[in-house]
Amino acid sequence: MDMSTVIATHGLTKRYKKHTAVDDLDLVVPQGVVYGFLGPNGSGKSTTMKMLLGLTQPSDGVVELFGQRLSETSRRQLLPSIGSMIEAPPGYGHLTGWENMQIVRDMLDLVDPQIEHAFDTVRLTEHKHKLVRHYSLGMKQRLGIAMALARTPTLLVLDEPTNGLDPAGIEEIRTLLVGLATQGITVMVSSHQLHEIDKMASVFGILSSGKMIFQGTREQLFEHALPDLVIETPLSLEAAQLVAGSLPTAEGIRLADYSKQETAELVQRLVEAKIPVHAVRRVQQSLEDIFINLTGRDGLL
């Protein structure tokens, strides 16, 4: 791990009796990015985040934060640099937003300018004296993020910060998190909103059954998941008979998992068989398409 790596795990594992929730996880989160942490329900995302924060002890493996191994001794030293919101946003409904933040201030030994800055960052200043039970869900989520930002962290760990929000609320959170990353704050965020996470994250980690099945940049992810190939020809049935595993369509034939070299060889075979090839193209993929291909049809979030 180099100095630009904020989070690294080595063989991180969590077992519950006969169930392994996280299995031999090697996680690398670079500095100053929005890291999209994805996986089907029950894949181990929340358990992993809790281990990163020292809230759950791993069965095996190592967590390193800012180049330092996480332990009972180092946790107190590391936590002031980390803000987090795991599961439901915190806050007492019978208190105002400001009163809730004063509790955070006193617990963390902060000063009023710090919590005022956190309110400004999440654009809640004009609502800070309103009772939290009268907040919209989006406002409650932003209050939770303000609590995580109060100590001015360099790492923010958020579990489902856009859960249950309407499109406007999701856009607000997305804009906020991308803005924080441009300021040098590393943001690790899990979400089931694949379309939104695709807009905010530049690095992804995808879990399935507790195992890391992909980790890398967005560009690497789209290269890793080879999109289907479409060969346009008026003789689709003849072409499908010639090419095993192909699916005839109105346009021609469709095939999966064909590399560039295999595609060139296939086109040559078709031409030699007197089957006209009008066009060759890849099917455009979304992050959701790739996610389903990697995790299986049961991998819908």
Question: Tags for this entry?
Answer:
six-stranded mixed β-sheet; alpha/beta; Rossmann fold; single chain; 36% helix
Structural write-up:
- By secondary structure, the chain is of the alpha/beta class.
- It has 2 domains: 5-223, P-loop containing nucleotide triphosphate hydrolases (Rossmann fold); 226-284, no CATH class.
- It is 36% helix and 25% strand.
- The chain is built from 11 helices and 15 strands.
- The chain has helices spanning 45-52, 72-78, 97-108, 112-121, 137-149, 167-182, 194-200, 218-224, 236-242, 260-272, 287-295, and strands at residues 5-16, 19-25, 28-30, 34-38, 60-65, 68-69, 82-85, 155-159, 186-190, 203-208, 211-217, 229-232, 247-248, 252-255, 279-282.
- The chain has a 6-stranded mixed β-sheet, sandwiched between helices. Strands 1, 2, 3, 5 and 6 form a 5-stranded antiparallel β-sheet that branches.
- The longest helix is centred in the middle third of the chain and has 16 residues, at 167-182.
- It is elongated, with a radius of gyration of 24 Å.
- The two termini are 31 Å apart.
**Share of β-strand residues:** 25-35%
The third-level CATH topology of the largest domain is Rossmann fold
Quaternary structure type: single chain
Helix content: 25-40%
Number of domains: 2
Spans where pLDDT lies below 50 across 5 or more residues: 297-301
Based on helices, strands and strand pairing, what is the structural class?
alpha/beta
**Number of distinct beta strands:** 15
| CATH architecture identity of the largest domain | 3-Layer(aba) Sandwich
Give the terminus-to-terminus CA distance. Answer: 31 Å
CATH level-1 class of the largest domain = Alpha Beta
CATH superfamily of the largest domain: P-loop containing nucleotide triphosphate hydrolases
pLDDT averaged over residues: 88
Number of helical stretches of at least 4 residues = 11
Give Rg in angstroms.
24 Å
- What spatial form do the alpha-carbon principal axes imply? elongated
Report the biggest beta sheet as strand number plus sense, adding barrel if it closes. 6 strands, mixed
Strand order of the largest sheet: 7-8-9-4-10-11
